[in-house]
Design goal:
Elements lengths: L1 H19 L2 H27 L6 H11 L2 H16 L4 H27 L8 H26 L2 H11 L4 H29 L11 H24 L2 H6 L3 H32 L4 H5 L1
Length: about 280
């Protein structure tokens, strides 16, 4: 009975720390700004695709494969809009995407600073430049994962026909893509925990949180994909806003997972391994 009570008290303590660190508020703030940059990023990617041999029909096929059915209408309208407009949209799209995503990265930085109990003392211009770099890195990660998961087989055939020397590497990537996706997410999370908060720690101390964040991200994505496919009550409640609301909720829980990963790092290292109490440091 005492062990259950200790477990309950521990769970209550962790829950209170999550509340004190405003994890939900920072996750919502990050999700909002990342949502603002999502549409410009999609616009930018589709605009750049026009300069490649990929046709509009190919883009539509990719949209159907990548996004859940509830998002198809929104992305399809974006594709049609981009193909019907001039290329002058590119500069505006880049500026809006980088500004919005930069604000999202800054919100995530503030949340991790609060989780790690450290004050922000770095220059704002430096933070902005770094936020832009992380935005570009995030876009590259998403593109890599999409290419690997959606166009992997097509890319493998193309490489086998035109660059046979790389065919073995391509085959290996296709076979291992189930493991590559969580590995890429974990490495990206490691970089977030290492460089975003104003705290100097080794990479190995961030591994527990990175594993949690990667697994949490995949579980959240899987739950939302199942929910969208099986349950239609959301569309009855929100109507035409269903797609936007679902994407916002998905981003919120993904950002929440990343911030919870920071809490895991604090719990694993600052408390269990060193025996220190973060509450004492805060008080």
């Amino acid at each position: 009975m005492k062990s259950y009570k200790r477990l309950y008290n521990k769970g209550t303590e962790i829950s209170q720390e999550i509340t004190d660190d405003h994890v939900g508020a920072y996750a919502a703030q990050s999700a909002f700004f990342f949502m603002l940059c999502l549409i410009p990023i999609i616009l930018l990617l589709i605009t750049l695709v026009q300069y490649t041999p990929v046709t509009k029909a190919d883009v539509m096929t990719a949209v159907i494969q990548v996004f859940p059915s509830s998002v198809d209408s929104l992305i399809t309208s974006i594709v049609n809009q981009v193909y019907n407009q001039s290329t002058g949209i590119i500069p505006v799209t880049v500026v809006v995407a980088l500004w919005s995503a930069g604000k999202g990265v800054l919100a995530m930085t503030g949340g991790l600073n609060c989780v790690y109990n450290c004050r922000e003392t770095r220059n704002y211009i430096f933070l902005r430049i770094r936020a832009t770099l992380y935005t570009v890195m995030f876009i590259l990660v998403i593109i890599f994962l999409l290419v690997l998961s959606v166009f992997g087989n097509t890319l493998n055939i193309f490489i086998a026909e035109h660059v046979p020397i790389l065919s073995r590497l391509a085959d290996w990537l296709i076979r291992m893509r189930v493991y590559i996706t969580p590995a890429v997410l974990m490495v990206f999370s490691l970089l977030i925990y290492k460089f975003l908060p104003n705290r100097k720690d080794s990479l190995k101390k961030q591994i527990p949180g990175a594993i949690f964040a990667a697994i949490g991200w995949m579980i959240v994505s899987w739950i939302f994909s199942v929910y969208v496919d099986l349950f239609k009550g959301f569309s009855d409640m929100y109507g035409s806003l269903t797609t936007i609301v679902l994407i916002m909720l998905w981003m919120y829980f993904c950002m929440y997972s990343i911030l919870l990963g920071g809490e895991i790092n604090i719990l694993m290292y600052d408390k269990i391994l060193t025996g220190s109490s973060r509450k004492k440091a805060k008080s």
